Amino acid sequence: MVLLDLKLPKIDGLEVLRHLRANESTKLLPVVILTSSNEEQDLLTGYSLGANSYVRKPVDFNQFIEAVRQLGLYWLILNEQPPARR
In sequence order, what are the residues at sequence separation of 6 or more whose Cβ sits closer than 8 angstroms to the Cβ of residue 3? Predict the structure, then answer.
């Protein structure tokens, strides 16, 4: 699972997502956009580029840690991944 922030210092997070989806070895990797952006366009673009989830980061540090913990539990325990390629 990749936790992807949209506001990265050198390359935009949405561009990272484009590259992940274009690469055969990472195109099925679960990607969760975890960002402080409230822009509806970021949400729409993220999903249209293949994000599996979009989560707005809580401002409070403890709430942020809890949100990341719950995301990890969901993706590692509850989510069913596609079968491995042969």
Answer: 32, 34, 68, 71
Cα atoms found within 13 Å of the Cα of residue 86, Cβ hemisphere only:
0
Q: How far is CA 34 from CA 17, 63, 68, 86, in A?
A: 12, 13, 9, 31
Q: Which helix (H) or strand (E) holds 53?
A: strand 53-56
- The model's pTM is 0.81
What's the pLDDT tens digit per position in 32-58?
999 988 899 999 999 999 999 999 988
CA gap 55, 69 in Å, rounded: 13
Q: Quick one: angle between helices 40-48 and 13-22, nearest 10?
A: 10
In the block, residue with structure tokens 């936790």: 3
